[in-house]
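Predict the assembly for these two chains.
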Amino acid sequence: MNEFELIRTYFHFSAAEESIPLGVGDDCALVDIPPDRQLAITTDTLVSGVHFPADGDPGLIARRALRVNLSDLAAMGARPLGFQLALTLPELDSDWVADFSRGLALDARDFDCPLLGGDTTRGPLAITITALGTVPRHRALLRSGARAGDLVYVTGSLGDGAGGLHCLADAGDDYLVNRYWLPQPRLEVGQALIGIASAAVDVSDGLVQDLGHIAAASGLAARLQSELLPIAPQLLARGGEARAWALGGGDDYELCFTVPPSLISAMEFALVDCGVAVTRVGQMLAASGGATGVHCVDASGNPLEPGVRGYDHFR
Amino acid sequence: MNEFELIRTYFHFSAAEESIPLGVGDDCALVDIPPDRQLAITTDTLVSGVHFPADGDPGLIARRALRVNLSDLAAMGARPLGFQLALTLPELDSDWVADFSRGLALDARDFDCPLLGGDTTRGPLAITITALGTVPRHRALLRSGARAGDLVYVTGSLGDGAGGLHCLADAGDDYLVNRYWLPQPRLEVGQALIGIASAAVDVSDGLVQDLGHIAAASGLAARLQSELLPIAPQLLARGGEARAWALGGGDDYELCFTVPPSLISAMEFALVDCGVAVTRVGQMLAASGGATGVHCVDASGNPLEPGVRGYDHFR
C-alpha cells in the first residue's frame, strides 16, 4: 500500500456536506462559509511520548487529537465545520492506521466535523489537527471581554485529565483513564453562551493558568475559591493531589467562562438542555496596581499556592 | 523563556488585516470570508531528515514550509488569506527560533499571507502549516475538469527541485540549491487561469505522477512529450539525470494545467503580466479501454519510461 492508497482506503470518510463542495483528494479542500458567520480556526499537535503514550490505542489517540481541537472551537462558541489532518507515521502499519481511522471517523461523525483534507508523511509519530468552525459574526467568545465583578464558572469537573494521565497504567480506574483519553469538548455549552458569557477559555493547561489568560487579556485580576472547585468523587478517592490537579493540572478540556451578574439567570436558562453541570468558582476583580493574575484562596479566604504549575512544553 | 513568551516574542507578526478580526492569542483565530468567495484550505508537513536536512538554515526551512502550502493554493487559483503554524521543536533554541521566525515573517509579508495562530510543542523537529485562501465561488481550478483534446502546460522549469536536493551539499550551485529551498508558488498564474484552465495541479511529486492525478480525476489519459519539457540550463549542465528529474523528480512546485484549444490565446493574454514562462508539454486523450494514465513519448513518438518514480513516503 502506498501513500495514495492509504489516503483512499482510510481517509475518505468526509461526508458530502452541503457546506463542503470539495473534500479530500484535490490540492485544497473547498468550504462555504455562510455570510452571517465568521470562520474560527485552531491547531493542536499531539506528539507521541509527549502528549500521549507511544503504545496508546490508535483509535483513542485519534479521538483525543480531534477532541482537544474541538475544545478550542467550543471556547469561542463555534460550531464545527470540518478539520485538516496531518499524520506523521514512522512506518505504514495498516492495522494501526485502520484503528486510528476508525476512531477518527467515529468522532468526526458524532461531532458533525468531517475530514476536509490533510497530509500523510513519514517521521516520528505525531498528529496535527486544524479544526474549522463558524461563529455568528462579531459574537465569538473572546478571552478579552471580562469585566470586574463578573463571576467565574467552569463546566464539568476538574483535575480528571491530570489524574487520568497519572493512572493510565492502572487497571480498573476506567473513569479517570477515560476522562484523559476522551475529553468532552463542550461545544453545546460554548454555543449557548454566546451573548451571555463575557469571556471564555478552555482548560487545557490547568485552571489557574487558563483563567490567567482571561485575566491578562481583559486587564483584570481574578480570585479563585479553591473550596468551590468541582472535583469528581473518583478523583477525590485517589487522595491528596486531587485539589492540586483541579487547580493546576492540564488536559481537562472543560470550559472556564465569565458571566456578568445581570446575566446569571439567563445563563442558567440557556444551559438547561446542555446536560453539563456548571459551577461558580470565583470572580473577576480590578487589577490592583495594574497587576493582572489569579489569586487562589482557601475556604477561610487565606491565600493558597496551587501546588501544580500549568503545563509548559519548554520548562 | 517559556512557551507563551516564545509565541509572544517570535510569532506575533500577523498583520492586523481587515479580513482577520482576531489573530494569534485566543483559543481560535477569526477570519472573514467575503460572501462571493469560497475558502480553500491545504496542509503540508515537513519533517526534519525527511523533507529537509536537519542542519538546514532555519529561515529557509520556514520559508519552504510556507511556500509548499502556497503552491497548493496556487493550483486552485486561490488568493492567500493566512496560515496556521504547528511547530514541534526538540528544545527551545532561541537563535534557531529567531531565524525561523524571521524567514517566516518575510515570506508571510511578501505573499500577503499572515500568521493566524497555531501550536508550539516539544518533540522531533517538524513543521505543519495549514494555509487558507479564497477563490471566487464555484470557479476554483480542480483536477477533474480536463477534457480530451485539452493541451497540457507547465510553468517555469522542471527538475530543479530534485536537482537542487541532489546537490544541496555542493558549494557554488546556487541556482539549483535556491530552487530547492525557495520554490516559487505560482499564485498569480493560478488566479489568472480561473475561467481559462480546465484543470490544474501543482508539481510536488513529479510531473508524471501529478499529471496522472489530473488524468485520473478527469477520467482521461495524457500524452507527455518529453522533448518539450522546459529544463533550465543550470540543470542540463549537471548532465544525465536532468530529463528524468524533470519527468519524475519532486519538489518543483510549478503548476501543471490543461487548457481547451479554444482558450489558448486567452491564456497567453491572461498570463502576460505574470512574468513566468509557460510551456506546452502534452495533451489530454480519451482513456483507451477505460485506462487512465500518463504516456511519455520521446521526440520520435516512441514510448519512454520516466526513470524516476514520483515521490511516495511509504514506498
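The radius of gyration of chain A is 20 Å. Chain A touches chain B through 71 residues (CB under 8 Å).
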